[in-house]
Amino acid sequence: MLNNPPGAPNPLPTDGRPVMTVSELNREVKQLLEGSVPLLWVGGEISNFAAPSSGHWYFTLKDARAQVRCAMFRGRNRNVRFQPGNGREVLARARVSLYEGRGEFQLIIEHLEEAGFGALMRQLEELKAKLQAEGLFELTRKKPLPFLPATIGIITSPTGAAVRDMIQVLGRRYPAAKVELIPVAVQGQGAAQQIANAIALAGRLQRHDLLIVGRGGGSLEDLWAFNEEVVARALAACPIPTISAVGHETDNTIADLVADVRAPTPSAAAEIASANAATLLDTTAAITRRLKRAMQQQLRHVGQRLQITRNRLRHPREQLHNRAQQLDHLELRLKAAMDNQVERRHQLLSSSLRSFARVHPEQQIAAKRQQLATATQNLQRSCKELMTRRHDRLQHAAAMLNNVSPLSVLQRGYAISRNADGEVIKSVQQVTPGEQVSVILASGEFEATVNTIHSVRE
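RESULT FIELD:
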């Protein structure tokens, strides 16, 4: 129905028919469009681009057969990361609407991006969402890397710098590993299928303990083979642990998400693969240094103990000299005792003679003389026997001392052997082949090495 505001011209006659004004019509159509058509993506070429001082953008999107007017308001176009212009292919997320003032069909743009990159990113996000929903990115399905892989397969281009970097790092950090190159194309038509086929073949052959899949840096289009679904599914199905090494640290591909381990660069992948070997080599070197220091310290300690023992050890000749000196001392004491005994007997005899001289009895004199002769004989015999016993004891002690002397044993051709700890070797169980021993002879001492051990059966 026509509802004119006050002061407006009289409406046209309607003859009772319902009539809408143009404003009402455009409003109804706008509401109908905006309410029935959801937010959608539209791709096309920009033309008639205008950016007035208000900050809004107005342009036309067209293809070979049609065009549509577009508006993108200031609050939205601030987030656009490129400068749009005539002739630029773009993708627009937009609402369908109608400009009531002129009755023109138009699109209200919510988001704008370059067509090529945007299409790839949208395709990438869709594939990510699909694979994530299937659980291909879950940490629980990822396999641990082997501790020390014997054979490492590298799936990459044989001519790129990445393969040279990886082989150089592995050769320096883990020379014991066998590295095999599995050459594939890493970009261009058919590259993704080649990569997937190489992964599947390596999984079937089971010749490798670890696979590194990757390439050097590049644009999104250059790295796109590693965003393909066929590569992702090959990595997920591979029974061999895998490392993804695609591009630089800022590059992220679907292969990085599916592989068991993601390396920021190819060189970093080689370092990850050789991490345990390098750590083991460093640990071995550290243990070797500590063992060397401990052995040197132990040798110094043993040397000090040996020197102390040598200082305390007295030569048997010195013991013989001491015993000989004791024997001489005993002989002198014995002679002094005999002299004292003779002197006392002589004094007794003199006293008796003086007594006899006072009395002068011939019989007593004769008897006393006989007693004196007998006493003299007894004294001489006693002295002789005492001297003989003392001399025999002295000879016996000297013989016993000589028998127990190590020098006497050594003079007969025997030797004394000691191990590295200074212990006397009494049994073959105390030594092992290759051990250093010290051998002492009567004329000196020398070092020897045990070559062979023969046990004597009892």
